[in-house]
Amino acid sequence: MKIQISDNSACGQINYDFSAVELVIDYFLKRNNNKINEIVNHPAYKLVFEHSKRFSSTALNKDMLVLSLKGKSTAFGFSNINERLSILKEMVNYLKNNEQKIKEEFIPLALFYLPRDYKPEVTVYFIIGGYNGIALNDEVAINIDWEQFRSAPQEIFLYLPHELFHIGFAHYQQVPDISIVKTKEDLRKLVMSFTMNEGLATLVTYQKRIDLNALSDYDYSILINSLLLTKKVKQFMSLIQILGRNISDFVTNKLLAEVLGQCSGDRLFYVVGCYMGLKIEQNYGREKLIELIKHSPEKFFEVFKNVDRQNI
pTM (2 decimals)? Predict the structure, then answer.
């Protein structure tokens, strides 16, 4: 299924690929072990492996997928999947039947915050297992078996712009991976980059979620709660201050785990980054955010500090 983007991207296109999710559903329905090799070598799962190797401290790999398919590992979340197969088949049909809605209402949300010269050429794979959503090298993988998606399939529509924004962002800024972190300064730069990237990706659907009253997602439930949001911002700024001291010191595994644990696990990348983007947009307009995408994360933080000072 191919979705042609008409809103500010006349030369761009997004391809939807359901072959991986249909392959996995068929495998679990028939338990045909001959399909395992086809699944683990599918481009969608190769994308999962590559993304996990670059950005996860406990990477998912091909062997884990094989064991998960055989019921010998829980790494990919296939436990009791036979009980969900009918629901997953319905979700595939739901997505296919809402092609026009996705094209007109949700895809433009990501493009609204990206430079006008960006022309998306993206493949979106729908899969079962792994992470809820990932983006890398002009490819996206969405796990339709994630509980939040099963409970409310419209959430997939809202996650797609988030991941598509990441693809566009990477066309203007190199996204660092954990392997580059040696010193506290390296870690500080990685945190700033991820905060800008994840924060603005969270921002792209912020207003749409308000319009749809779709705010049960954890990140957005924090963003609309001033007390909880203030706590998250203070927590994040404390981490930034720690990383700003003795910047040439080597990063220990303990510090790396503590910082990334809070930024990712406590959702600081997403919540605080979105808050920063909102403040910049409210004070300088959306075009300023788009302009900043072509600059460094340090510039994003600098502009936010100027906004913060004005509001003191």
Answer: 0.90
